[in-house]
């Protein structure tokens, strides 16, 4: 059976994203692979990696307010109930400033891997805006540069933390730097194996050079956290202990009166249950046949044909991978694009989020806080 994952974000071409004014360059380094595992000194890594991002009230600029909980200054952005924010061109400035903020080469790509697999390089514990207690994975000589570069790790983490302050991600427990080679998975989220009520964010620095791509992907991954966290989808604890037990999985699915995304049975008030009920009712059975195909190539071809047939219902060619990816893609467009007219089902999926005042408020908050961080650069 081909498992169509619900928490990964692949690097693809986004026609819907606005063009970024400042794009970072990626450097390619041709080196041979040394199969010997090497790691950096643990004490040195610990000293360099214990790091926290915060501001003080005196750091606030004119017109900014100070959030004592998040320990951040931000300029409030005024938006109406339709999500229309004051000022013109804010999204262009958003990415122009992002390019300045991330003005560092985050992707010295290693090109000698045909099948690298996913290699966890460093795992950090997350506590608010703080990342600490790095656990180092095995790294070949070619990958050691990515493991040792704590400045890159911190820069990626700070970018995520400025997008989403701590109260927006109380269920995030770990931050992982990993790689599977360039131009593969940029980032993903997954349940914490030690606590299924918590989640892990993983980012590949080899794919994180483009600020537009990185921003879109981090928002996409946050959408998974927003729609799959324990307050929306209480985890099935028995299934978490035996994730490969198909009988147990089928029992859980059959006992669930709402949508079952894989981690547990969604509450009837959950965003994803409302989304699936509204947009996937007539498509789910057809999609499910594809999801359970044994041959991976056949499944990929069938999924693309599915997208071609229902293209006006999806905001990207990645969205039909699963309902979980569909809602995450639509949420990303909701954050990063003006409000659509609703002329297609794909646009209706973006309008779905405007039905939730708390999400419209969060959209304005995200942009205003990031703007305040970036304009300091």
Description:
The structure is a single chain. With 377 residues, the chain is α+β, with helices and mostly antiparallel strands. The protein has one domain. Helices cover 37% and strands 15% of the residues. It is built from 13 helices and 11 strands. A hairpin with a 2-residue loop joins β7 and β8. Residues 1-49 and 103-116 have low confidence and may be disordered.
**H/E element sequence:** EEHEEEHEEEHHEEEHHHHHHHHH
Can you count the beta strands? 11
Shape: globular
In percent, how much strand structure appears in the residues?
Answer: 5-15%
Count of the separate structural domains: 1
Distance from first to last alpha carbon: 48 Å
Strand sequence of the main sheet, in spatial order?
1-10-11-9-7-8-3
Task: Please tell me the overall pLDDT.
Answer: 79
Radius of gyration, in Å, reads 21 Å
Helix segment tally:
13
Q: Main sheet, how many strands, which sense, barrel?
A: 7 strands, mixed
Structural class: alpha+beta
Low-confidence stretches: 1-49, 103-116
How much helix, percentage-wise, in residues? 25-40%
The oligomerization state is single chain
């Amino acid at each position: 059976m081909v498992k169509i994952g619900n928490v990964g974000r692949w690097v693809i071409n986004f026609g819907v994203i606005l063009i970024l004014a400042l794009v970072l360059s990626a450097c390619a380094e041709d080196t041979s692979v040394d199969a010997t595992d090497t790691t950096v000194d643990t004490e040195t890594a610990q000293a360099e990696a214990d790091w926290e991002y915060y501001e003080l009230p005196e750091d606030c600029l004119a017109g900014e307010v100070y959030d004592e909980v998040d320990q951040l200054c931000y300029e409030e952005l005024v938006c109406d109930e339709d999500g229309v924010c004051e000022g013109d061109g804010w999204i262009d400035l958003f990415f122009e400033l992002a390019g300045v903020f991330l003005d560092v080469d985050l992707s010295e790509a290693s090109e000698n891997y045909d099948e690298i697999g996913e290699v966890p390089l460093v795992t950090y514990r997350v506590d608010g805006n703080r990342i600490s207690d790095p656990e180092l994975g095995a790294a070949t000589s070619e990958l050691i540069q990515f493991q040792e570069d704590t400045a890159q790790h911190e820069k990626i983490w700070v970018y995520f933390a400025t997008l989403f302050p701590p109260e927006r991600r109380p269920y995030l427990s770990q931050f992982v730097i990993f790689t599977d080679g360039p131009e593969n998975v940029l980032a993903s989220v997954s349940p914490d194996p030690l606590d299924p009520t918590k989640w892990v964010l993983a980012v590949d620095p080899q794919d994180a050079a483009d600020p537009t791509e990185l921003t879109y992907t981090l928002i996409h991954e946050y959408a998974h956290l927003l729609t799959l966290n324990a307050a929306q989808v209480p985890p099935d604890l028995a299934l978490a202990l035996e994730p490969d037990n198909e009988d147990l999985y089928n029992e859980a699915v059959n006992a669930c009166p709402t949508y079952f995304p894989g981690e547990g049975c969604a509450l009837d008030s959950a965003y994803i249950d409302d989304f699936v009920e509204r947009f996937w009712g007539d498509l789910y059975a057809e999609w499910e046949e594809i999801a359970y195909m044994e041959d991976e190539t056949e499944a990929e071809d069938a999924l693309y044909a599915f997208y071609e047939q229902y293209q006006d219902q999806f905001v990207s060619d990645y969205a039909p991978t699963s309902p979980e990816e569909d809602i995450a893609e639509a949420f990303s467009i909701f954050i990063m694009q003006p409000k659509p007219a609703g002329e297609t089902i794909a646009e209706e999926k973006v309008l779905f989020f405007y039905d939730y005042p708390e999400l419209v408020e969060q959209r304005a908050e995200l942009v205003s806080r990031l703007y305040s961080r970036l304009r300091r650069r």
